[in-house]
C-alpha cells in the first residue's frame, strides 16, 4: 500500500496553501487529493464569450502585505486591479450607501428619524430609558445583537431582512458573532459623524481583483506545489482513523498526518466519527453569472437587496471592475440547506427582478453560467462552535487537521485560509 507523510484533502486555497507551505520548507512528502476535475474549490473562474466570472463575487483585501507580495510574485504578467469599492443598498427605489447603519441620513426624513430615535434609545443609558440596557456584548444571538446595538428601525428596515435572505434562516438561531469582523459595527458617534463627513470604510473599502479572475491567486499557490503531487478527480471516500488509512475509488493510502479542507460535517462522516449532524447547518447559494450586450449602471460594484420581494440578496457588476462596455453581473440567491433548487424557475425570476429593479432594460442576455455553492454561508451557533471544538480536538489527537472556511466551519477570506495553512505547517 502507498503511504505519504501528509495527505491533503482538497485543492482549493487551503489545501494548496498547505502543500505550498510544506514544499517551501523542503517537506516534499505530501499528496493533494481533489474530488473535482480542477483545482480552485470555490475560487474558480469561468470565462465565457469574453466575460470573466468567479463562482460568486470574489474580491480580495489583504491585511498581510507579505502574503499579497508572495502571491503577486507568482502571477507574472497578470494585471491586478485595485478598486475603490462602491456598494449600495437598494431601498425603496433609492440607493443608500453601504453600510446602512451609517447612512440612515440618506433615508426619507420620517424613516431617518425613526432609525435615529431607535438607535439612540437602544444604546441610551438606563436613566434616559427607564430600563436596563443589555450589558455591552451581552446579547447571545445575532438577532438580539442587531436590535440591541442598532435599535428596532435599523434592524427591521435592513439588517434583519437582508441577513435573513443571505443566511436563509431565523437570525435568532445564529451566534451574536456569526459574521465576526465581516459585520460593519457602528456606534451612535460613528453614525452622527458620517452625516457630515462620509466615512464608509469597511474591511474591504478597496479591493484587488486579477484580470484573469480569482483563480489567478489559486494558480499562484499551485505554482509552488509539485504538479505530480496533486491528484484530481480523486475524492477521499473513507478515512480509517485507527489505521491512518484514507480510501479513494482508486486506492488506499497510508498517512502520518491528514489535512482536510472538506466541509467539517462531511469529514466527520467519512471518518466515521459520531456527531450530531443537525448541529452543522448552512445555507446554499445559487449564483448566476450573466453577460449582456450593452452597458448598465456605472460607478457601482455591488448592490444589496433587502426587499423580500426580490429573489436575490446581492448583485455585483464585474464590468465596472474591468471598465468593460458590456454589463456583466453575478447574482446571488440563497436557499435553506434542505430546500429544492429549481434553477430554471429561479433564473426566470432573477431576470424579472433585475428588470423590476432597473438593473437591466433593453439588455439582451448573451452569455450565462450558473453554479450552486453548497455549503456557502455556514450557520455559526453556540452548538456548532462547541461541537467543532470537541470533534476537531479529537481528530487533531489522531493527526487529522480540519482547516479552511468549511473545515473550520466559519466565515473567512482566502487570506485567512492562507494564514491558517501556513501556521499549521509552521507549528510542525
Ligand atoms: C458567496 C461567497 C463569496 C465569497 N467571497 C469572497 C471574497 O470576496 N473574498 C475572499 O477572500 N473570500 C471569499 N469567499 C470565501 C472563499 O471562497 C473561501 O474562503 C475559500 O475559497 C475557501 O477555500 P478552501 O480551500 O478552504 O475551501 P474550498 O474552496 O471549499 O475547497 C475545498 C476543496 O476540497 C475538495 N473536497 C471536498 N471534499 C473532498 C473529498 N472528500 N476528497 C477530495 N476533495 C474534496 C472540494 O472539491 C474543494 O475543491 C466567499 C465565499 C462565498 C461562499
Primary descriptors:
428 residues; alpha/beta; 7-stranded mixed β-sheet; 13 helices; globular; binds flavin-adenine dinucleotide
Provide a descriptive summary of the structure in words.
The chain is α/β, with parallel strands linked by helices and 428 residues long. 33% of the residues lie in helices and 22% in strands. Strands 1, 2, 9, 10, 11, 12 and 18 form a seven-stranded mixed β-sheet that branches. A hairpin with a 2-residue loop joins β6 and β7. α1 packs parallel to α7, α1 packs parallel to α13 and α3 crosses α5. The chain is globular. The model has no long low-confidence stretch (mean pLDDT 93). Flavin-adenine dinucleotide binds next to α1, α12 and α13.
Question: Short summary of the structure?
Answer:
Strands 1, 2, 9, 10, 11, 12 and 18 form a seven-stranded mixed β-sheet that branches. A seven-stranded mixed β-sheet has the order 7-6-14-15-16-13-17. It contains 13 helices and 18 strands.
The shape, in one word, is globular
Q: Which percent range describes the beta-strand content?
A: 15-25%
Helical segment count: 13
> Which small molecules are bound?
flavin-adenine dinucleotide
Distance N to C terminus = 25 Å
Q: What integer value in Å does the Rg equal?
A: 23 Å
Mean of all residue-level pLDDT scores: 93
What is the β-strand count? 18
Proportion of residues in helical segments: 25-40%
Structural class label = alpha/beta
Main pleated sheet: 7 strands, mixed
Question: Which blocks of ≥5 consecutive residues have pLDDT under 50?
Answer: none
